[in-house]
Amino acid sequence: GRLNADNARFLLLAVLIVLYMLCGAAVFSAIELPTEREAKERWEERLENFTRRHNLSRAELRHFLREYEEANVAGIRVDDIRPRWDFTGAFYFVGTVVSTIGFGMTTPATVGGKIFLIFYGLIGCAGTILFFNLFLERLITVIAYVMKSCHERQLRRKGVLPHNGRRGSGTSEVDSLAGWKPSVYYVMLILCVASLIISCCASAMYTPIEGWSYFDSLYFCFVAFSTIGFGDLVSSQNIKYESQGLYRFGNFVFILMGVCCIYSLFNVISIVIKQSINWILKKLACRCCHRCQRRLFHSRRNVVMPGNVRSQRNISIETDVVNESDTDGRRLSGEMISMKDFLASNKVSLAIMQKQLSETANGYPRQMSSNSKQNGFSGGVGALAIMNNRLAETSVDR
Known about the structure:
Structural class: mainly alpha
Largest sheet: none
Family: Belongs to the two pore domain potassium channel (TC 1.A.1.8) family.
Keywords: Cell membrane, Coiled coil, Ion channel, Ion transport, Membrane, Metal-binding, Potassium, Potassium channel, Potassium transport, Transmembrane, Transmembrane helix, Transport, Voltage-gated channel
Protein name: KCNKD protein
Mean pLDDT: 76
GO biological process, one term: stabilization of membrane potential
Number of strands: 0
Number of helices: 13
Radius of gyration: 39 Å
GO molecular function: metal ion binding; outward rectifier potassium channel activity; potassium ion leak channel activity
Shape: extended
Strand content: under 5%
Low-confidence stretches: 301-339, 368-377
């Protein structure tokens, strides 16, 4: 039933996700692994030259570099950057937490900070996800209202609707928008265009201010807006910027709008994926059903069915559907008829048989005609008498 369909959908989605991950791993490994090997070879060569030039042991140098990596995790950089945990830095950090971006350039180092982050992120992430869902609902309502307004404007131009006609307001107006809900593909197209526009505008701002290339800025926008948050590129990390206050405000607005659009786009794409999975399962179920029903039809083609049921309509191999019963309308789909349908379709014959059984049991058998005696169908008690009487009625004199 419903549970089996949900389990099949879940298993198919899990298989598709695993296959998708395997394909992605193969592609990224083929693209990035050669570059990683070349970088490692260059680093080993530089490390060897440095130790030889300064007469240092490889173990001492590695120990020093490991200490620098620990300092780097704590927020220490070679270049001058702003403090990570001043108020503006902390506000930027909590923004990455509640939006589930999590760049990783700033992480709590104390036990108290880590414990507080667990509870703070639990409530903050839940509230932000609720905000994103409500944003998608409001967006769909706005699109429906625009579609309805455009349709009413066209009707007014044609003279079908009066210019001052108002159908209502408040709750009735919201209810009237139910029939104007846009298609999921239409919403997906709008969100794609909106996300692209926001990303292009944000990249135009990041490129001159952060010193990134335009492609790197687009890459950062997708990583940040999709809440992936690798942390290889992070905005607003330098000590000073030109028009610093305006830039940080613009950065906040772009990230907020971008995350809302991309998150909503992910929700809409998930609906499309679910529809595709349902379509695949339906096709697979139809093929399996047709094969099973064909086997069932061939295996039971010689099964004796009630006479009046088989005479009404032939079974179609394409549809594999047998007649519906007059009592419950049950579709038999090629299986053997049930006792309930047998009784419903043969109630007249059964009534006659029951009457004959009663007469025979009470000693009042039905009078046999001369034709039946001549044909040899006579006598018997109970079921044997009924069979003889039926044979006598259907026999033909020769």
